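Researcher: I'd like a structural prediction for the single chain below. Treat it as a standalone chain; there are no partners to consider.
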Amino acid sequence: MGRKTAVTAWLGVSLVGLIVVIIVLGLGLFPRLTAAQEVINDARPAFTAERVAADRAAIDMISVAANTVDPIMTPTGGVAAEWPKLRALVAQQSGLSVPQLQARLDTNFPHTAGLLNAVPLSAVSAEIPKLVQFLSVTLKISPTQVLAAIKKNFPHLYQAITKLPTVTSGWNKVPKLTLTRFDGTPVTSVPQIRDYFSRDVIAMLERQQDNFRALDTKGGVRFLAPLLLILGIIVIIFGAALAYGAAKGIPREVDALGWIVVTVVGILVISLVFALSLFPRLRGGHNLLNDARATFNAERVVGDRTAIDMVATVIDVADPIVTPQGGAASEVPKLVAFVSQQAHLPRPVVLSMLKSKFPHTTGLLNAIPLSAVTAELPKLVVFVGKAVKITPKQVLEVIRVNAPKLYQAITNLPTVTSGWNKVPKLTLTRFDGTPVTTMEGVSGYFSKDVVPVVERQQQNFERVDNPWPPLIVFPPLLVIVGGLVVLYGLFCYYLTRKAVL
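Model: Treating it as a single chain, here is the predicted structure.
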């Protein structure tokens, strides 16, 4: 190899390095891969195997809760229309009048009867402003003072009754919610929100958890940009230095040694690709980006917040009234006593006035805690069976056939009440390590941990999800560059050694 040819050959090495630098800077790999690493770092807690499994247990419990209350929330839920017909059927079959049957239900199953009398819960919401006005007149204080007194003395009841109207009015059409399923189906109701998180968002986490965790090993992806840049700069400097040396007439043995170094660099690049498992990891990252793209859509991220806030409000309404630990059950008799004392009326009179003027609200107060409804249901089924002379199993079948929405509510309710304070099969912690065992904790986990990750990283995800180059390009690109460098180095080494010999 002549001096002129050697100089040209070494400048070719610098050109390869320059091309690598242009690729790194021209394609914006630094901001893109930095954004990718930010997404990985922030989303890491959400993709642990334990949390992904717990997400499914949590959303399944939310699903059961939605199936329980959907039939009783609004008139369109179905129970409001089914219950009078079923009650009339049972009365007819038992030989009782409807008032007689209702009286027995009120006496023997007060919590269940109260809940049925409260349906639909939207009617409770409609009564609440009138109830506050009634208490204002009765207690001779302003409506604002009534609410302040309830908040101070009965905080759990206050939480439930002040948030219930938001839930009932928005159950079938959540306010300000602009959201679609991943397939484009509009999401407008609370049950549809449940379907969206269960079948789209959490399903994506389940599908992609292995790809995410693989991407999050061996240094992540941030290092690729500086690695390529440093490699390119070194190659430029090395090629330029040897080109200068060749022009000045460095010994051919030194020139040959330089080409060995070039060959080793190429081998090192190829070795790094396979040592770091870049092919499977970045292929998995590419699949992850494709699958998660719908989750990080800007409009959908805004919808996520509206949706999860509505779910949190639903749980805030239910939490005080589902079990005795919620607090509302112990506050109900105290509220009656408070009104009785302040209005100077006997308690039976207060109860009679409330039942007469606000039957749905009184029914709900009598139903609290809902765990007591669960306890009464088996006995109620036996009672109805004896009254109409059929087995308990046949009673449930009659309900299923004649009142399917009521059947849905009563068969799901026991799971909700028994698991409200300890969700079954749930091994979950908040991102800060705080254990999550209750439905209130589940709400906080999704609202304060999971959805905020999507909100914080939405723009970073868009930077990563640049159409070109896709992540799967990097491993073969590095292998090709490394391979060409190896071949180039070996070829020039051969020419140099041939000239020496």
